[in-house]
Amino acid sequence: MTNHEQFLSRSALTMRESAIRQMGAVLAQASDMVSFAPGYPAEDVFPWKAFAEIASDTLTGSDGSVLQYGPTRGFKPLGDVSLEIMKTRGIESRTDQVVITTGSQQGLDLIGRVLLDPGDVALMELPSYTGAITAFRNTGASLVGIRQEPDGVDLDHLDTTVRKLRSEGRRIKFLYLVPNFQNPSGLLIGLEKRARLLEWAERQDVLIVEDDPYRDLYFPDVTREEETRPIAAIDTSRVIYLSSFSKTLAPGFRVGWLSAPAPVAAKLELAKQAGDLCTGGLDQRVVYEAYRRGLLARHLPVLRAYYQKKRDTMSRALDARLTGKLGWVPPRGGFFLWAELTGHLTSDRLLSVARRRGVIFVTGAAFFVDGTGDRFLRLCFSSASPERIEEGVKRLAEAVEEASHAPADSPVSSI
Amino acid sequence: MTNHEQFLSRSALTMRESAIRQMGAVLAQASDMVSFAPGYPAEDVFPWKAFAEIASDTLTGSDGSVLQYGPTRGFKPLGDVSLEIMKTRGIESRTDQVVITTGSQQGLDLIGRVLLDPGDVALMELPSYTGAITAFRNTGASLVGIRQEPDGVDLDHLDTTVRKLRSEGRRIKFLYLVPNFQNPSGLLIGLEKRARLLEWAERQDVLIVEDDPYRDLYFPDVTREEETRPIAAIDTSRVIYLSSFSKTLAPGFRVGWLSAPAPVAAKLELAKQAGDLCTGGLDQRVVYEAYRRGLLARHLPVLRAYYQKKRDTMSRALDARLTGKLGWVPPRGGFFLWAELTGHLTSDRLLSVARRRGVIFVTGAAFFVDGTGDRFLRLCFSSASPERIEEGVKRLAEAVEEASHAPADSPVSSI
């Protein structure tokens, strides 16, 4: 019998499964489960017919490069599209700063590898996106949490933390932020705070990693487009900006992009070369054509109205059934409603009951690098239909009721 | 002015560009260049019409999961297909051993991350595939070269090297092999030697990483299918086996797979989760349907005849123009003819002249982890048309003539 453990790297020994992907697996096996867990966009709103047309126009063979190995930085016209999109967001980037990535997740992974050594520090919001946490943690870096206020990162806590880390001789590489409709909290960082965060980064000589997948999905009833202006729009010289077509077109294409200071982009390209040579050729062409033909521009207002309505459905259902048991702020964009249990019940304990009652969500602790957050739930409203959202909230309310009254020492699922 | 160098990881500081990808960039900029450089499959033989049909059948919207986030291990029916394909190659693998990867390059990258710590040793054939060299080197591991004999790895050199490394206290994780029509040498490891390599790995308690992208492209005039039987067909308990659809369907889909001992596969899945969440959904469906509809099975004999004919064209052209100046063994499968300059001329020096004369190839040194190999050329015959192969060899012969007579101190290009 071969002992395979002995062959594993230190990084492999500490790798953990994402709580979100775990719930994805639960979902795949269940039949009548209502899922508020993985942040999936709704499939019924994908422009299927237009995608099929583009695919068949693209696969004629008249351009052989569609299915050939392509440049590591990506299909050049799509890189130009990313520059145009960034321009509409106020960001002045250049060709030598851009890398097309196999989803934004690859961008996060490349950033971890190119910037972080074991023992380095990455500063993360409390809470923060699990995919970034996992990618950065795999490098052996330390992730240190910074508290959030209603308008974003607590600057005082940021200063205290940095002073303490530096006095211990720690090397801080960057602050990771999701300023627009954060996964998981839904939080929108205020414009003034964005400017102050960049000033802070300059003063402290660290980078900002700005992850922006939800920017186009602001809800017009409560959010003006100007409020989503990225930090990179102020200056790109110390910001690595990431965005994606996964939430606006479809995640199955695995197409995102990043813009970094040119010397960093050059290293990210080399890391990607070893990582997968290039992003899928057909996928990049379909996304490019969806932009060029105006499909994306026509689709965005539809998506905003569509997800805003789902936000309303979930918000109203929670109001009706869980007022007093759960606290939350209705999100101003994105896919997530972030809720806090008001009593002593933990979200882990609640999930074990909820799962049995046919509804799942992601527990808060997964998003906190400091091990706190066990009273929080991330409720994703993007994927289920309005009827299923109602049904799911009903089941959730029943689960809260049951879990609050069950004996505290009853067996708890290990998920 | 921000100093970005200070933010880079140790790994990023040592990352180097692949010589093959570099030639790809040269190619993209040149107009009348004959390329024997990147190992691109020929685009004119891709089954475009069938791909377009499959794509349009797949993008109806009746199955929403096609464009949704998918399981990290891959689209389950495609995993089953990989098991069936491995079975035809004599390999008994199981579902819990398989991971679909974003091309085989991702598989190599994941293996590096999951198995190698800085200072660990990976044993590599001299020469070996540059994509593997780069992926493994990025982990900070030491790559140590083992000489090849006509039937593959020199077992005596392997033993001497391992004894020496162990006496120095080095930790050896695996031996990386491309047994079928190796990139770059085209070498086919003999069946008896394959068995002896596995026995060696068991005796020494190390793993074998068996990379097998060219297996289906054996040339029937000189190779029997049985001669391509993978090492993993003997036993999978210490072999990580990789293969791909990039050479048989198209690389633009970025779909490969690996089979590893289950505990290692579980870690590779976690590394992939952080790396890109999942491989493209549409890509996986197209590849799956190409198999299910019998397209792949019908296509393989066509490809074998097609590439065998190109091998003949290059072989004959070299015979006619470069006998005595270059030594080579006609390959028995795959994409590459591996040639050695018989005089004092190095392939680097030759390339600088050849490039000016309109033909490029990859220089040998890129494939040797010990820094030798500067008399070798990798000539890829898969991509150019027969007429262009003739023209390219003519230019190459002229370049050899010119470079052999030019003063040795003339300026040499830095590529």
Blueprint of the fold:
The structure is a homodimer of 415-residue chains.
Chain A: H1 10-14, H2 19-29, E1 34-35, H3 48-58, H4 76-88, E2 98-101, H5 103-115, E3 121-126, H6 130-137, E4 142-149, E5 152-153, H7 155-167, E6 172-177, H8 191-204, E7 207-211, E8 239-244, E9 256-259, H9 262-276, H10 281-292, H11 295-322, E10 326-328, E11 336-341, H12 347-356, E12 359-360, E13 362-363, E14 376-380, H13 386-405
Parallel strand pairs in A: 1-12, 3-4, 3-6, 6-7, 7-8
Antiparallel strand pairs in A: 2-9, 4-5, 8-9, 10-11, 11-14, 13-14
Describe this structure in words.
Two copies of one chain form a homodimer. Chain A is α/β, with parallel strands linked by helices and 415 residues long. The first copy, chain A, folds into two domains: 5-46 and 299-405, Aspartate Aminotransferase, domain 1, CATH 3.90.1150.10; 61-296, 3-Layer(aba) Sandwich (Aspartate Aminotransferase, domain 2). Helix content of chain A is 42%, strand content 15%. Chain A contains 13 helices and 14 strands. The first copy, chain A, has helices at residues 10-14, 19-29, 48-58, 76-88, 103-115, 130-137, 155-167, 191-204, 262-276, 281-292, 295-322, 347-356, 386-405, and strands spanning 34-35, 98-101, 121-126, 142-149, 152-153, 172-177, 207-211, 239-244, 256-259, 326-328, 336-341, 359-360, 362-363, 376-380. In chain A, helix 8 (191-204) links the parallel strand 6 (172-177) and strand 7 (207-211). In chain A, helix 3 crosses helix 10, helix 5 (103-115) packs parallel to helix 6 and helix 12 (347-356) packs across helix 13 (386-405). Chain A is globular, with a radius of gyration of 21 Å. The two termini of chain A are 30 Å apart. The model of chain A is unreliable at 410-415 (pLDDT under 50). At the A-B interface, helix 1, helix 2, helix 3, helix 5 and helix 6 of A face helix 1, helix 2, helix 3, helix 5 and helix 6 of B.
